[in-house]
C-alpha cells in the first residue's frame, strides 16, 4: 500500500532539502507550499524537534546539519547560542556549523593562538585582537561578560561566515554550560530509540480494511509473524490483525470485520527499553510504530528489541548517568552466592536530598540494582522490573555506609520475585519486594 504524503510531510521534506544555513520563516513556507501559516508553524516546530532547524532569539530559525547518531556529541554554534543565552554579533551564516572543541582564552595572545584551529570556539573576554585573530583562523568566538566588539570584527565575522557571540555569563559558567550540554548528548548517544531499530513502512507487511483473511495467511506463510498492522489509504494505523482475531473465521471474511481497533503502539522517540517493557507486559511479539499524526512508520519485533538491548550492554560507557553514579558506590562484601548476597554502598552527597538524607529515588535505584544482580547470579539473561513495593523505615544520613541484602524468593522461566532488605549499622532502614520479568536471549 502506498502511503499518502500529507502537507505536514511535504513541509518537512521541503525543509530537509533546503541548504544548511538557510533562514526559514513561517510566512515564506506557507507561501511557497500553499499551506496555512498554522500548518507551516507546526511543521517547523516538528523539524526543530527532529534536529533539522534551530531557532535563535533575535536571529530566527535556520536550517542546520542533521546529526547522525554517531556524531551526536557535536554541538552546532546555533545550539551554543541557546545554551549560553547568547546574542549573535556577526557571522550569522555560520551558525549551522559544528564546533570541534572550545578553547578558553586565559593566556597571552601568542600562546593562545597555538591552540586555535578551524571550527573551534574561542571563549574569551573583551580582547578585540584575540577576536580578530581567531576569526582569521576559521574559529568562532564567544565573548563572555556581555561585552561587545569592534565593528571591523563583526564585518570580518560576516566575511568568514563564522559566528561571534556575546554572553552575559562569565568564562567559567559558559565553559561549564557547554561542557554539560556535550556530556548530556554523550549519554543520549547510547540511548537506543525505537526509530533506530524499526523496520520501515516500505518493508512492512500491512493490510487494508478491504483485504480478506486470506491475505493474512499469505503474509503468515512468508514471514512467520502473527500480527499485521491495518492502515487506511493515508497510511494511518486503524487496527491490527493477530492469529487470535482470525481463528474460526472464513478466509473470505473482510479484515475490517476481524481486526482489533486502537492497537497498542510505540512512538518513534520511545526508548527501546520502554518498548521492551510494553511488549513483555502485554505479551506481544510485534509492535506498530507511529508518529504524532498516527501515521504508521514501521514495526519492531521482540527479537529486534532484545538484540538492541544486548548490543547496548556491550557498548562502552561514554557518560555517567545517575544510575552509574549510584552503582559506582557498590562494593561486594561477600562472595556473591544466591543465598548469601550482600552489597555495601557509600551514601555520597549526590545521593541525598536537601536535608542530607538518602533520597527516595536513589533508594529505589539501589534496591532495583541489588535485586537485579541477585537474580542474575541465579539466572543469566536480561530482565525488566515489572513491579516494586518499597517500605522505607527510616532516613539514612549522608556519608553513611549501608548494607543491601537481596534474597531471591522465587525464579522461574519468565518471572522472578526478590525481597530486598537495607541495613545501616545492623538496623533495618528499608525493605522492598520486587517482581521482575525475565527475557529469553
UniProtKB/TrEMBL annotation:
Pfam family for this entry, one: CBS
Domain CBS span(s) in chain numbering: 198-257, 259-317
Entry keywords, A to Z: CBS domain
Protein name as catalogued: CBS domain-containing protein
Domain of life according to the entry: Bacteria
Amino acid at each position: 500500500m502506498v502511503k499518502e504524503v500529507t502537507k505536514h510531510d511535504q513541509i518537512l521534506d521541503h525543509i530537509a532539502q533546503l541548504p544548511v544555513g538557510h533562514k526559514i520563516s513561517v510566512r515564506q513556507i506557507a507561501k511557497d507550499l500553499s499551506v496555512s501559516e498554522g500548518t507551516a508553524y507546526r511543521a517547523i516546530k516538528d523539524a526543530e524537534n527532529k534536529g533539522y532547524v534551530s531557532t535563535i532569539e533575535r536571529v530566527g530559525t535556520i536550517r542546520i546539519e542533521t546529526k547522525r547518531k554517531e556524531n551526536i556529541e557535536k554541538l552546532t554554534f546555533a545550539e551554543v547560542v541557546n545554551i549560553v543565552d547568547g546574542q549573535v554579533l556577526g557571522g550569522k551564516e555560520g551558525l549551522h556549523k559544528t564546533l570541534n572543541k572550545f578553547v578558553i582564552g586565559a593566556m597571552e595572545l601568542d600562546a593562545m593562538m597555538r591552540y586555535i584551529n578551524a571550527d573551534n570556539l574561542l571563549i574569551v573576554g573583551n580582547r578585540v585582537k584575540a577576536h580578530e585573530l581567531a576569526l582569521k583562523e576559521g574559529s568562532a568566538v564567544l565573548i563572555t561578560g556581555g561585552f561587545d566588539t569592534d565593528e571591523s570584527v563583526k564585518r570580518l565575522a560576516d566575511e568568514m561566515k563564522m559566528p561571534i557571540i556575546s554572553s552575559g555569563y562569565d568564562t567559567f559558567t559558559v565553559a561549564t554550560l557547554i561542557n554539560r550540554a556535550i556530556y548530556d548528548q554523550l549519554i543520549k548517544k547510547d540511548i537506543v530509540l525505537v526509530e533506530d531499530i524499526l523496520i520501515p513502512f516500505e518493508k512492512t507487511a500491512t493490510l487494508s480494511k478491504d483485504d480478506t483473511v486470506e491475505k493474512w495467511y499469505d503474509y503468515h506463510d512468508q514471514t512467520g509473524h502473527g500480527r499485521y498492522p491495518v492502515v487506511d489509504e493515508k497510511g494511518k494505523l486503524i487496527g491490527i490483525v493477530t492469529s487470535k482475531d482470525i481463528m474460526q473465521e472464513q478466509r473470505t471474511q473482510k479484515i475490517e470485520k476481524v481486526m482489533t481497533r486502537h492497537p497498542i503502539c510505540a512512538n518513534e522517540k520511545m526508548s527501546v527499553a520502554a518498548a521492551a517493557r510494553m511488549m513483555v507486559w502485554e505479551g506481544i511479539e510485534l509492535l506498530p510504530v507511529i508518529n504524532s499524526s498516527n501515521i504508521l512508520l514501521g514495526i519492531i519485533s521482540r527479537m529486534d528489541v532484545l538484540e538492541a538491548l544486548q548490543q547496548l550492554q556491550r557498548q562502552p560507557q561514554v557518560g555517567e548517568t545517575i544510575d552509574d553514579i549510584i552503582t559506582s558506590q557498590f562494593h561486594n562484601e561477600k562472595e556473591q552466592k544466591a543465598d548469601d548476597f550482600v552489597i555495601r554502598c557509600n551514601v555520597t552527597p549526590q545521593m541525598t536530598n536537601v536535608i542530607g538524607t538518602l533520597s527516595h529515588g536513589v533508594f529505589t535505584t539501589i534496591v532495583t540494582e541489588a535485586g537485579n544482580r541477585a537474580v542474575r547470579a541465579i539466572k543469566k539473561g536480561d530482565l525488566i522490573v515489572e513491579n516494586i513495593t518499597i517500605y522505607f523505615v527510616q532516613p539514612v544520613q549522608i556519608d553513611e555506609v549501608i548494607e543491601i541484602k537481596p534474597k531471591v524468593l522465587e525464579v522461574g522461566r519468565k518471572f522472578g520475585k526478590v525481597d530486598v532488605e537495607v541495613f545501616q549499622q545492623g538496623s533495618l532502614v528499608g525493605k522492598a519486594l520486587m517482581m521482575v520479568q525475565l527475557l529469553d536471549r
